[in-house]
Amino acid sequence: MTCANTTYRLARFVTAVLLLLTAANALHADERPLDAPLDNPNILFFFADDQPYNTLGCTGNEIVATPSIDALAQRGLVFDNAYIMGGTSPAVCSPSRAMLFSGKTLWNLDNQGKWGFEIGQDTKTFPQVFKEAGYTTWATGKNEPGKAGHFLRSFSAGDKLLFRGMTRSQYNMPLYDYPADGTFKGKKPVTHKDKHSAEIYADAAINFLEKRADDDPPFFMYVSFQTPHDPRQAPPEYHAKYKAEGIPLPPAFMPEHPFDNGMLTIRDEKLAGFPRTEKEIKKHLADFYATMEHTDAQIGRVIEALKASGEWGNTIIVYTADNGLALGSHGLMGKQNVYDHSVHVPLILAGPGIPKGERREQFAYIYDLIPTLIERADLKTPDTVEFKSLNPTIADHTANHQPFLYFAFMSWQRAIQLSSGYKLIEYCVDGNRQTQLFDLRNDPYELKNLATDPKHADRVVAMREMLKGASIRYNDGKTPSEYTTKMGESFWQTYHGKPAG
Question: Which residue among 402, 423, 448 closes a domain?
């Protein structure tokens, strides 16, 4: 046997042993007690843009292919009732992301008007907790709000950063580098063309993982895709898989919304014609699924890089989204509403200490992830965080968490959803009121309004009282911002002053 052959076989043997040890360590890490804090776990946080709950294979969608995210669900835990709180801006993503970073509820956010949600210096952000604990906090992708303030105190590194709500093309991206001198003042974005945004962000994440040294500190990675938000573009081979004529319509498809909800002519709603047609909605859904499968493929690439880095066994992976989307349901296209399709989003956790292949039915807000992940790293949650840790629920599937959900959209819509399955939505638009009551257990797509059914008259009265109580609890109409205070006051003045239609 030649020396070269001997060396080659020895190298293969050593490689095989190392792979086995890595797998054993990963298995051991995954089997830690469910309620035990971990020793400096890494965090890999995937954040999607405009994704309803039911648009993954693991959440019951039989059309779209999302094998990478589905594999995370099989390895980890799915929260089937995870929600956002709604929005105080037409760009629902902005207050949603501000809640995720600040830990403050919707009506307690710092706010500088319709489009401004920079977080004040007196609030320690979610990633900042990890940064101050010695983590490398790294970001790529969509990071608005943040450029004018809280981004740099949250992240110690980053690459390919988008500081706007959206772009007109996924192939023409004005992206910032992380500023070595600690300021974005005077900096201009670099335009990246001919590569899809999701691929750019995945490449950046992979590059970060590949360049890490063995003695580097633990990391908090924030990979924030701007997909499947429109423009819903993907490489041709993905669009070829989804033919519009073969895509089923959403169960709640309607040509138009039955009444004015306050925002029927916003940009999102103009993405399709009025009234909606089956053909056009199917084309939107086909493009959505193509974009989603392509995004899933990029997530798979990052996960493979994580495995190759040797960090797989000590990394908690999160997948969720900033808000949902109507996509033709209820005659709507956007997320400027509080129907289930627009406030209900995916939430998956996987990694050490997380149950494998399990699901939880408890109500949760995605912002509950803040204390959850901070606690799992054995760090202190800031006193300013107003959301609840999911760790008791992770450890015990019977644990109580959130008894009800409160939703709001600007000055026009308020809703409360109970664990019994009933959901009350109240509308106040131009001095007029509308009420909807849905039994989600028997009517999950919110099609049958029970508000005027005499059998449910007492229920409507009781839930209205609960809605008012929740509004007080969450400071709806009494916020730190004049803009949002007026928004709440406008709704409640109409609500208390005029009977519902």
Answer: 402
